Structures are given as C-alpha cells and as structure tokens.
Q: What sequence folds into this?
C-alpha cells in the first residue's frame, strides 16, 4: 500500500518541547515550574467573564474580536488597524513569518532564544540564521546586524529573552533598529515585558511609533495569567497588521478568551500588583541562588536561567525527584519559573545540594 505523500522536510522539523506537568505523588505536593505560567488564578471579575462567555460556546466567536481590538487600541493608544490577534504570541510569530518569508528567504534571531522561531521558519520553507548569545546570555546585536543579508526578511529580538531572561537596553536597540534595512521586519517579542524592573529597557511601542518596519508582540498568557485561553496580539503598522490578520487561523481567538482578555485589561492595576509580587519573589530566588555560588546573570522575566552544560539533565532529574519539574535545554541549562513560594523554596534547596559538589 502506498502511503500519503507528505513534505519530506517535515520529518526533520523539531518538535516544540512544552514544559511537562509534574506527576502527582502521595508523599508531597508537586509543582510544574517549566512553562513560565502565572501561579495566581484568575481574578474574580475575570473568572465571572469567563463563565458568562461560556454560555455562548455553541456560537462561533466574532472573527475579528472587535471588542478586544477596541480595548487594546485604547489601552496602548494605537489605531485599531494596528492590532492583529492570534492564539498566543507564539501563533503570531508564525503569522509574521508566513506573511514575510518563504523558500530562499532568511529569518534571523539570537540563539538560544524562543524555540518556536526555528520551527515556524522551517515550516515556511525559509532558512534560520541563528546568532549566538554573548557570554552574558544577552543578544549580540552587532553580530545580528552583520548577519543581515539581502535575503533577510524577518529579525526577532526577544526582550526579555526566553529562556535566559536577559534584556537589551534602549540605546542598544535604538542603534540596532536604526541600521536594519527598512524592508526587513524587526519583531520585538515582549511576551515578558510586564516583569521588567530595570529602568534602561525599551518599550517596543515607542519603537513601533517611529519605525514602520517594527512589530511588537505581547501576550495575555504570562502576566495576565490566561495561558490556557491562548490569546496574544501584535501591534504593527497597518500594511503589516493586515497581513497578520490574513494569515491568522479563522475564529482562532475564542469568545471566552476575548472576554477574559477584556476583563483582564479592565483589572490591569490589580493584576500588575500580582506581577510586582512575582518580581519581588524573583529577586528572592535569584539572590538565594547567587549566594549559593551560582554564576547568574540578572533576569527581567518571570524565570531564572541556570547555565549547566552537560549537568543539565542531572539537575532536572534532581528537581523531579524533589517533586518539581523545570524546563531543561539539553546540554545548555535549565529555565526555572518563579512560582508558588513552596515551589521556589524547594528549588533553592535542590540547587544548594546540587551546587555543593561543584565547590
């Protein structure tokens, strides 16, 4: 029997490795700290919006999510035509690449960075150009600038970077964006923007206002705590935003996701108080690990990165034995989400034991 003919390059497509759930145990509470999820449940008002919207699940959602688009346009003081939605910012990454790059084109990004970039690039038939991070885990923007060719169509700058948590400064990004050819899309992936505590970190919206080739990505999955509902958005100039809407999955943003996002925007002040609490907890975890002797770089996201090299799998196994699941990147390091206090305390304890033999 002849099997269906599929694209041969699909066999080489790397699978997206989502953070795994911790297996339930009888002897202790287990924690999943592998996906950078917000540990807080939805606010009562957001939960009420979700429950009310669930009554209409027999109906298709508004294909344009007009109420959410209007709310986002007001919140960020941009035209509604500048907003494009998707099922999380990860989907919008795919919409951007599908809109701009194909066979023979190049998509440029730092590495290690968000693992969806090379996946979407290969799906589109374009070529990934990966520029290694600097020794301090930050984007090497001069090297990225030098890597741009006439085939480059999209450049991703993940700020803060996932999984290392590092940021590029306003001056560095200004120098970079001003020198990228105007026909190349510069995507500022700001999925963790709300967790930034430093002063010298750019807000991508300002770059969007001044550069027609800049696209800003945001999500409701992290700071807003709507990871399961899958809604993200891009802010771009109208021609680009229109292309992103054309490449989006029809009816991708559900009615429940739209109403929860609108309610979250309305409760933003209260939600950001939770973010502030997580930032304080991040500092506590980071300081405790640093005091143990770990060579850490400061993080501006809701996670901490440990560069472990060939000991990555051993550390992940030690965490799993203690009832916590982190996100290992084989041969490189682990990303540890700042989560519930008990989970964080357990990470610190495991890291301390693991660090001791290293001296």
A:
């Amino acid at each position: 029997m002849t099997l269906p003919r599929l694209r041969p390059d699909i066999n080489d497509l790397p699978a997206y490795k989502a953070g795994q759930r911790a297996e339930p145990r009888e002897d202790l509470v287990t924690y999943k700290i592998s996906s950078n999820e917000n540990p807080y449940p939805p606010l009562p008002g957001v939960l009420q919006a979700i429950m009310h919207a669930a009554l209409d699940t027999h109906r298709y959602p508004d294909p344009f999510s007009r109420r959410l688009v209007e709310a986002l346009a007001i919140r960020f003081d941009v035209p509604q035509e500048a907003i494009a939605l998707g099922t999380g910012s990860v989907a919008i990454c795919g919409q951007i690449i599908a809109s701009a790059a194909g066979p023979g084109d190049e998509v440029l990004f730092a590495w290690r960075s968000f693992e969806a970039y090379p996946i979407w690039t290969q799906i589109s038939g374009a070529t990934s150009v990966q520029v290694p991070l600097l020794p301090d885990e930050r984007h090497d923007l001069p090297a990225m600038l030098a890597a741009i060719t006439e085939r480059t169509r999209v450049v991703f700058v993940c700020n803060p970077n996932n999984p290392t948590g590092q940021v590029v400064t306003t001056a560095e990004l200004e120098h970079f964006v001003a020198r990228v050819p105007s026909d190349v899309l510069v995507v500022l992936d700001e999925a963790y923007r709300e967790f930034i505590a430093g002063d010298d970190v750019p807000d991508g919206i300002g770059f969007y206002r001044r550069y027609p080739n800049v696209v800003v990505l945001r999500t409701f999955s992290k700071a807003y705590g709507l990871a399961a509902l899958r809604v993200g958005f891009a802010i771009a100039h109208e021609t680009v935003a229109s292309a992103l809407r054309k490449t989006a999955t029809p009816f991708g943003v559900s009615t429940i996701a739209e109403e929860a996002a609108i309610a979250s925007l309305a409760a933003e002040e209260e939600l950001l108080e939770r973010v502030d609490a997580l930032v304080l907890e991040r500092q506590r975890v980071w300081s405790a690990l640093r005091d143990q002797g770990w060579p850490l770089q400061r993080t501006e996201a809701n996670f901490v990165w440990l560069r472990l090299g060939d000991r990555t799998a051993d550390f992940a196994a030690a965490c799993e034995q203690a009832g916590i699941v982190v996100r290992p990147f084989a041969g490189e390091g682990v990303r540890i989400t700042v989560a519930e206090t008990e989970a964080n305390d357990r990470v610190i304890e495991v890291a301390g034991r693991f660090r001791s033999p290293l001296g």
User: Anything to note?
Assistant: DSSP finds twelve helices and twelve strands in the chain. The two ends are 61 Å apart (CA to CA). The first strand starts at residue 31 and ends at 32. The chain has a mean pLDDT of 95.
